[in-house]
Amino acid sequence: MAAHQTPIRCLLIAFFTVVTTYLAANAGDQIQIYSQNPRYWQYKGQPVLLLGGSKTDHIFLAEQLEEHLDEMAVVGANYVRNTMSQREGIDLKPHKRLPNGKFDLNQWNDDYWKKFSDCLRWCHERDIIVQIEVWDRFDFSREHWEISPWRPQNNINYTARATGLAAAYPAHPSQDRQPFFHTVPGMRRYDGAKSDRIREHQERFVDKVLSTSFKYPNVLYCMDNETSTDPKWGLYWMTFIRNRAAEQGVTAFCTDMFDDVWHPKQSQKLRIAFDDPKTYPFLDVSQVNSRTFNEDHWNNIHWIARQREAHPRPLNHTKIYSDGQMNFGTGTPVDGVERFWRNLIAGSASVRFHRPDAGIGLNDTAKACIRAARKAESRVPLWEVTTAMDLLSNRETDEAYLAAHPGAKYLLYFTDGGSVTLDLTGYPHEFDLRWINVSTGEWGPRKTLLGGGAVDISAPGKSGWLATIVRE
Known about the structure:
Helix content is 31%, strand content 22%. The protein is of the alpha/beta class. It folds into two domains: 2-383, Glycosidases (TIM Barrel, Alpha-Beta Barrel); 386-471, Immunoglobulin-like, CATH 2.60.40. A six-stranded antiparallel sheet has the order 14-16-17-22-19-20, with helices on one face. The chain has a four-stranded parallel sheet with strand order 4-13-12-11, covered by helices on one side. The chain has a four-stranded parallel sheet with strand order 5-8-9-10, with helices on one face. Strand 6 (95-97) and strand 7 (103-108) form a beta hairpin. Helix 9 (294-307) packs parallel to helix 10 (333-345). The longest helix has 24 residues, at 2-25. It starts with a helix and ends with a strand.
């Protein structure tokens, strides 16, 4: 096996060397931590708020992808989730399928990888940031495992006896019974040479991903989709990717997504990430957007935002659940919209509506939210304000949320109409208030406020409204 790997490794090194000069010349254009506020991203040297919604998670395999990306760009969406899906039909697997029906893990399915390359190129052309998820636990269990190239019965490269991989994994992947995710030494199910055999092919797969993704400056990396396995698994792959990037003189921003972040105060894995900003330079906290609602959701995301202040860095939400009302707590489209805005007011760097039917994708409601956010950003850049709930009074539970640069600019979100009092004491100036209708994404009424004391502010109507308040 080692002899077979050597020429492949040499070819990869040669390829990476060719693109190194390009990447170095364009390093300033790369997605990276915003130099003026490390809680946000910058791209092409400018701060950028990442907003998204799309019809699928494995976006590179979507039908009519260019048209869908154009649809996003028109409304101001600039953020997509891209799982390196292994769950598609038999002809859309990453590995080559031989005439005998089995896969060869040492050869690639050119169609799969061309779609991936096209996706990154098209996103780059539209200034859309791609967050790649390398592994998704759902791709390696239940019905998806039955046709997986990695299943020993389906490939020519190894047997069940040589790897310890079973023919079936019927349990929900949250039970973490799949040895595929324990191939790293020191993990609970690690089994020496058997695990190493699998990991050789895993590394080849990740190298193949990087041989394309390293060409582009608009890429972030997340190791897993809502993993419940030991963080050692994600840590191995973060280190692997960073080492490959270092060989090319570039930076790869990597993180992991933990399933138990829906109850963040009890999550030991999240605590590990909080305490290790070098390993986790940004945090994907998508799972906070399930199972909790209304002010409880705010309390969770606000708690996460406060904890990250020990080591400020971006909070990403590649999934905001809503629609479907699934039993794990997706909620309704209204819940998704409210989560979107609470996350932004709490200081999150990215928000994206999850795909149907666990989310609203890029439907008209999602488009309206994205348009509204871009209008709000034009007057109150999110990286210039912080959560300021102490400036609100006469507020009912879950009625309104505020971010502000006191005396200069304020962003006030009403979940369903209402009225609150804003403290403008100490700022006896005129402020320009412009409303934005969250339901339509359009501008609403406009008025002048006189500061210097407490000011009552009432939303123009029911449903969601944003008040952008800027000192004149």
